[in-house]
Amino acid sequence: MYIALFLLIAIFLAFFVYGVYREKNGRQRIEKLLEEITDVNERLRVIEQQKTEFISIASHQLRSPMTLVKGYASMILESTFGTINDDVRKAIETLYASSEKIVDLINELLTVSRLEEGHTALTFTTVNFVQFVQQVLENMKEKVQSAGLQLVFTIEEEARAIMVEIDEKKLGHIISHIFDNAVEFTTPPGEVRVAVAFDDIEKRIRIAISDTGVGMTSEQIKALFERYDLRVSAEGEIIARTDINEYVGDQKQGAFQEPSGRISSGIDIYVAKEIIHAHHGHFMAESDGVNMGTTFIIELPIVGHTVS
Question: Which parts of the sequence belong to the Histidine kinase domain (predicted)?
Answer without folding.
Answer: 57-304
